[in-house]
Amino acid sequence: MDRLLSMEVFVAVVELGSLTAAAARHQMSAAMAAKHIKGLEARLGLRLMNRTTRRQSLTEAGQAYFARCKTILSDIREAEQGAEALRLTPRGHLRITSTVTFGSFSLTPAITDYLSVYPDVSVELVLSDMVEDIVAARYDLAVRIGEPADSGLVARTIGRYQMIICAAPAYLERYGTPASPDDLMRHQCLDFSYWSRRTGWQLASNDGSRAGYPTGRFVSNNGQALRQAALAGFGVVLQPELLLGDDVRAGRLVPILQPYWPVARPISLLYPKDRQALPKLTTFVDFLVDRFTR
Question: Where does the HTH lysR-type domain start and stop, copy by copy (predicted)?
C-alpha cells in the first residue's frame, strides 16, 4: 500500500473520529480505510489504535506516531506548494557560465538588469574561456562563441562576435605595418593560451591560402593582459572588438589587416532541454534574446 496515503488515512481517522468519515474524505470504503491502518500497524509492529464497537482511541505509540505523521504531511504540503510556486513564478538560483570578455562587458550588465526585474531570482556567473560540459558542471545556461556543437542542448543565437587585429601606433612606427597575414610571421603576435593551431591566428593570405600560425614571446589566457601588452607597444593583438573597440576609437590602438579579419562568429545561449523548464530559466533566456537581438 501507499505509505503516505496510509498515513493520511490514519491522521484523518484521528481527526474525524471514525473510519467512515476518514474513508469518505479519501473516497474509499471503510473496509479499505481499515486495511490502511492495519497495514501501518503491521509495518511498525505496534498497535496504534484501541478499537471497540463504539469508539477508537490512540495508544501511547499511536499518539507519538500521529504527531510525527502530522509534521511529515505538513512538510510534504509545504514542499509541493514551494515547487508549484517555482513553476508559476520566476524564483530560485541560476548558475551561468560565459567567456570572460563577453561575460564581463556585455552579459554582466544584462544580468543586473534582469535581477532588477525579478527580485526572487539570484545568479552565479562563472567566467572562463575553458569549455566545460554544461550538464556535468551543473550549469543552467552557458554563453558560447562559435558554431555550437550538436550536443543535444538547446541553442539560441543572440548576436555575432567580431575579432579584430590591432597594434599600438608606437609599435607600427617602430616595426612597420603588416600588409598581409604572411607579414605577421615577422612580427610579435600576442597569443591566447586557449587557441590551438586550428583557431586563432588563421587568416586568409593574399593568394587565398591560409597563413601560418605566427609566434610571439608573450602568451596569456586573458584578453585584458594581451590588450595591455598591445597598448604598451609590445606586439600585434587579435582580440574581440568588444574588448579593443574603445582603444581603437581613442587612437590608442590602430586596426590593421581589416580584409583578413576572421568572420564574425555566432554568440549562442546553450541550455539543457526540459519540457517543463522553470520560469527562472525561460524568462532569463527570453530577456537575453530580446536584449541582444533588438
Answer: 1-59
Quickly state the pLDDT bin for 93 (edges 50, 70, 90). Answer: very high
| Torsion sign across C-alpha atoms 78, 79, 84, 89 | positive
Binned at pLDDT 50, 70 and 90, residue 87 comes out as low
Same domain for 110 and 125, yes or no, is yes
138: region left, alpha or beta (phi > 0 left; psi from -120 to 50 alpha): left
Total structural domains in the chain? 3
- Co-location of 174 and 255 in the same domain: yes
Average pLDDT over every residue of 53-67: 80
**Buried residues in 112-131 as b, exposed as e (16+ CB within 10 A):** eebeeebeebebeeebebee
Tell which of 68, 85, 102 closes a domain. 85
pLDDT confidence tier of residue 196, bands split at 50, 70 and 90: low
Residues 6+ apart with CB under 8 A from 42: none
State the residue for C-alpha cell 593570405.
205
CATH number for 232: 3.40.190.10
CA atoms within 13 A on the CB side of 1: 19
Report residue 156 as a C-alpha cell. 539560441
Which residue range forms the structural domain that includes residue 35?
A: 3-85
The long-range contacts involving 150-155, CB below 8 angstroms and separated by at least 24 positions, are 151/270, 152/273, 153/270, 153/271, 153/272, 153/273, 154/269, 154/270, 154/271, 154/272, 154/273, 155/268, 155/269, 155/270
Q: How confident is the model over 21-44, as a mean pLDDT? A: 85
C-alpha cell at 158: 543572440
Cα 94 from chain centroid?
Answer: 6
Does one domain contain both 111 and 240?
A: no
Q: 265-271 and 154-161: which strand pairing?
A: antiparallel
